[in-house]
Amino acid sequence: MSNRNNIQYMPVVRKPQFNWEEISSHWCDNNFFATHFVNSMHVVFPEGEKFFIRSVKAFADRIKDKELQERVKLFIGQETQHMMQHKNFWEVLQKQSPALDMFHKLYTNMAYGRDEAKWSIDRKKLALSTTVALEHYTAIMAEVALEKESKLLEGIPEEMTRMLQWHAAEEIEHKSVAFDVLKEVDDSYLLRIKGMILASLDLTFYVGMGQIIFMSQDKTIKLEELPSHLFRFIKKTTPIFKGILANVADYFRPDFHPNDNDNLFMAEQIFQKIMTEKAVA
Ligand SMILES: [Fe+2]
Ligand SMILES: [Fe+2]
User: Fold this and answer.
1) Total number of domains constituting the chain
2) pLDDT tens-place string over residues 238-271
3) 64 alpha carbon to ligand 1 midpoint, in Å?
């Protein structure tokens, strides 16, 4: 039975602290292919999160429902915290690789260089629809990462695990906010699907581009080790790609709603853990 009562999915803005004093250059499972894949996401995500906030804010005055207005505020609060925490990690990454600044500049120019202020209402709707689809992707990745049997976060430093688990849990908590805004602004199925196509192409292209740039600048990589690192990466990420395929297919259902998959309990387990482990402001 679908669960569309959003009261239990009311986001909470938390401000956890993470210590990024040092991290090894191939911190993700001692695997350079995996590390640079996630490093690329650490650059792609914060700019994406700023874009999500702008996309939703563009229609804030059209939201009549008081509860949705509140959820939008809290969604913006959570995404702002995510963006800040990813950027804090950049300080460590920048010391290790000049690729970060190079990729960041290229990525922001290519993805966000156009003059958003002059966008038509239809273009703004497409941006919101792309945000909704990307929020679906982050919610899928979050679920796969937080599943009990998941091995996705194994071989990752403790502080990075805490950070990724917190981010994942909040992605589940606010997964329906942008979707409900789009529903209120424009309920068109075609618009939602166009956003998914655009989001899928953008996500694949920019994360892939970042990974290639990071790897090309990493002088410690031994090319002869690439097949074994790639094989371990594929083996570990197969569940996430299977999860993505199944869940993206679900998104194409005309009556799809993110809360049809009621998985808030997964997020709550993480919040309890984070709150008891270390002080959260
Ligand atoms: Fe986020
Ligand atoms: Fe999000």
Assistant:
1) 1
2) 877 887 888 899 999 999 999 999 999 999 989 9
3) 25
